[in-house]
Amino acid sequence: MASVIENLVNIADKARRVSGLIPSDSLERLLANNVPSRFDEEWKYTNVGKVLKQDWTGQAVYDEANIERFLFNDFDGHLVVLVNGTLDLSLSSFSQEDGLTIKPLVEASQEELALKTVEIQQGLFIDLNGHGCSGGVFLHVDKGVKVSKPVHIINFLNGEGSMTQSRNIFVIESFGQCDVIETFCNESGDRTFRNSVADFVVKDGGQLQYDKVQQDGIAGHHVATERVHQSRDSRFGINSITLGGKFVRNNLEIVVEGENCHSELNGVYLLKGKQHVDNHTKVDHRKAHCTSSELYKGIIDDQSTGVFNGKVLVRENAQKIEAYQHNSNVLLSDFAAINAKPELEIYADDVKCSHGSTTGQLDEEALFYLRSRGISESLAKQILVRAFVSEVIEEIKNLYVKDKVAELIDKHFSV
């Protein structure tokens, strides 16, 4: 696999020269890395080598008009558009309201970059992104500032065989608040690969709500890594909605480094055709008196495969932790598959932690009842699917996102 790594480094070198970003010190680690295989526990159910060995030297392109369909209806907020990993100011419309800073990552100073989280999660894709980052956004909320409007980041990528690597950094100072929405899209049907990394720092008493919608198209490949660092009394919530992408791997790690924190993780993944979606989450409780809640639901159809591996780690001194985790899946086809592995690793003795996983099919009696009332089979399935995922959708507090996701779910099962 050495030639695969060397080829990825060459692509990364080219992207970095175009972006103007200074590479991190990850090149040495990158060259020493191996491509993850199914012998690695973290990649047991996902063959990423087959993806990386493809030719990703294509030219990325885009059509401005296509971005319109990814906007929210009557959206009142800050719009940030990244085209092939680079902030496009001509398509963006955001104001620098008091206490909020949004700018290209390349313009962030060393002092600002030093505010970001410590290196939590490592590995091939993070090192690859660190060496060949093609651009991204730096967002900073000052101490005590509540951002009045949500920030919507659209990541647009097209171009047969193209690859992009973006990195976003979000820093919420003490008692600051912000809502961020991020959409990943590729509607052209081109075979693409994106390797995105996002770092979140939520300081004492800060609050950050992050909603992610993945629409990477029928031939899109996406490895997404989110790393979160929470300080005392902070709140962090994430809703991950995966509705597109031939191959998707979501890596989410939350390190809770202060007391009285709350972390909330919710996700929906709707798969059809031959899609493969792998959700890996980890909540690392390092301090006492914290809570976390996790709920992921999947609808898996045709010959698609899903993976859910959620881990809650409670360290020895982290007493009085309450952590809940559940994963539910519905298989709509005899050829669909799910590999679910919820985990608890607890070293403290005064905690309330639980986890669970269920997999089944749509209720045949409910389906028969709806069809007996003159409802078509496809519409009946759509109604039952909406009912199944509604528990997660209700957790989406942003109405722009909630309405858009409901619309996309209906569309997903109507074609």
Could you explain how this protein is built, in words?
- The chain is α/β, with parallel strands linked by helices and 415 residues long.
- It has eight helices and 20 strands.
- Helix 1 runs parallel beside helix 5 and helix 6 crosses helix 7.
Task: Note the topology.
Elements: H1 2-19, H2 27-32, H3 49-52, E1 78-83, E2 86-87, E3 100-104, H4 110-113, H5 124-132, E4 137-141, E5 151-156, E6 162-164, E7 167-172, E8 177-185, E9 192-202, E10 207-215, E11 220-230, E12 235-244, E13 247-256, E14 262-271, E15 276-285, E16 291-300, E17 305-314, E18 321-331, E19 337-346, E20 351-360, H6 364-372, H7 377-393, H8 399-412
Parallel strand pairs: 1-5, 4-7, 5-8, 6-9, 7-9, 8-10, 9-11, 10-12, 11-13, 12-14, 13-15, 14-16, 15-17, 16-18, 17-19, 18-20
Antiparallel strand pairs: 1-2, 3-4
Helix pairs in contact: 1-5, 6-7
